[in-house]
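Incident review: delayed structure delivery

Summary: a single-chain prediction request sat in the queue longer than the usual turnaround. Root cause was a stuck worker, restarted by the on-call engineer. No data loss occurred. The affected request and its eventual output are reproduced below so the record is complete for anyone auditing the incident later.

Affected input:
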Amino acid sequence: MHHESRGGFQTTKGTKHTKEENFLLLVLLMVLVVSDVFVVLTRAQTFRGEVTTVEIPVTVTDNTGRLILGLSKDDFEIYEDGDQQPVTQFSDKRTPVSVGVLLDISDSMRGQPIIDARTSVDRFLSDLLDPGDEAFVESFNHLPRILSAWTGPPSKLKGKLEGEKPTGGTAIYDAIFAATPMLLRHTRSRAALIVISDGADTASDHSLAQTRETLRRSDAFVYAVAVDSATDARVSTKVSPEALREITAPSGGYTEVIKTYEDIGPATERIADELNHQYTIGYATLKPQDGSWRSLRVRVKNHDYLARSRRGYYATIPATKSTQK
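Output delivered after worker restart:
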């Protein structure tokens, strides 16, 4: 009897110990659940903090090149790396622009050509841009020469090219390389680069491919005014519209070929008109800013219209984030 009682006591004690273990397990489980919820909430808050807005200036034209105005947010579609993104920002108002003007002063620009070019650039800077914009001017022959830092209003740069004397060869690619650091430091919400030249690149240390790649680091629209003059019969030194289009098209800009130096003025007027009538659209990307290249495509739902914008951007790591818009 004593032995059975003792055995019964041991059984009862064993049952009591199991209940204590169960209680401890339940407490531990509750602690784990609460911890998991806290971690999830913390991660969600961190994730929300890493949302980045990508803004894209866009030009819309019809198939004749006429600018299309009056569109709304619902008229646009944005694709990042092939995936459609909801349009979260939209504006059809003009915003300030930073513009770099690169003028060819090689030997072929002697005489009336340089006079016509200077007159056109001065008018562009003083009359066609807004006082709230900023600009810089660069001349180039076989060597690039930046003549001013970013300056606002742009009218202050009128006459900046007056002392430049045409001589030497043509290094368009090197000129663009020299301008790229300026573009990365622009302070207005949009940026553009205008290259005016009447010759093929004959003197650059950089290649066309390298030039295209360095411009991918910039958010600037790149425009080229190519003077294909009938008075210059040297095929080897004639301007190459095909090469210039390889530079301008990925940026959302364009290359215009003109026949006379007097046409530089109307050509720069058309560029100013475009810069004055761009849309700005945007979307929120949830992808990390890891420095990778992201392709972009902007479409207008009305397929009779063409949207021009940059074709991608580098998702700049926040610690080194520059002026990505």
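Verification: The longest strand covers residues 52-61.
Action items: add queue-age alerting; document worker restart procedure.
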